[in-house]
Amino acid sequence: MPLPLVAVCQMTATGDREKNFTIVSDLVSQAKQSNACIALFPEACDYLAETKKDIVAMAEPLEGELVNRYKCLAKDNNIWLSLGGIHEKFDDSSTKIYNTHVLINNDGEMMGAYRKIHLFDMDNQDTGVRLMESDYVNQGCEIIPPISTPVGLMGLSICYDMRFPELSLMLRKMGAQILTFPSAFTYQTGAAHWEIILRARAIETQCYVIAAAQTGSHNKKRASWGHAMIIDPWGTVIAQCGDKTGIALAEIDLELLNRVRKNMPCENHRRTDLYSELKPLK
């Protein structure tokens, strides 16, 4: 029996929501034609606007038209979709939104929604770089238990979350076999840290890691690193996109995952008598 195939997707989103949806649709078609059972998209796959005012103004609730179109796209193509950072309007009176990772099954049903808990705030006066996600995004307050998918139990997170190993270790403890880090990683930090961090998360949790990515220039203020990739539980990069838009494919082999965990049973060796054990939030 063939192993299930996943497609990690890379795109360059702009402030044009309709154009972005067309790009997502084309990548979904490529993934389906390649026999992938799930296509994973990056943070801000709905849009990447230039100003905070536009980011908030363009957001929709998860029950809105755009997410319904994604649901139809999944159902029409008989494929699961991981939409790695939808701008979610939660309250019409609020000046902030949520950055929400949505998972949709091949019947067009929403299987989970995770709101980003670690917000990327950088105000570096030496370099002149100021990116303050907390100015317009509400902080999530819940770790979502891993969700059963055709490729295994999938843990949801978003971009900057990857810098906090506690979240990944918690998802592993909750049963995750696959960790997802859909991202719009900045170019400078991506060049230095992207692959290193992702491989570390795979090695320390003994999970597959799938990181969809934005790439290239979105507007005059923002560019992303790209290099969407899939990493196996041994820490080997088994598929990646480089800096071009498109998809990369890989098989998910849960027998390999089980062998890695059996041959190096790190979970059995944790010294929780000397440091606190991570416990799921109630």
Please provide a written account of the structure:
The protein is α/β, with parallel strands linked by helices and 282 residues long. It has a single domain (5-269), classed as Nitrilase/N-carbamoyl-D-aminoacid amidohydrolase. 26% of the residues lie in helices and 28% in strands. Strands 1, 2, 3, 4, 5, 12, 13 and 16 form an eight-stranded mixed β-sheet that branches. Helix 1 (17-33) runs parallel beside helix 3. The radius of gyration is 18 Å and the shape is globular. It starts with a strand and ends in a 19-residue tail after the last helix. 42% of the residues are buried. The model has no long low-confidence stretch (mean pLDDT 95).
Note the main attributes of this structure:
282 residues; alpha/beta; Nitrilase/N-carbamoyl-D-aminoacid amidohydrolase; eight-stranded mixed β-sheet; six-stranded mixed β-sheet; 6 helices; 26% helix; globular
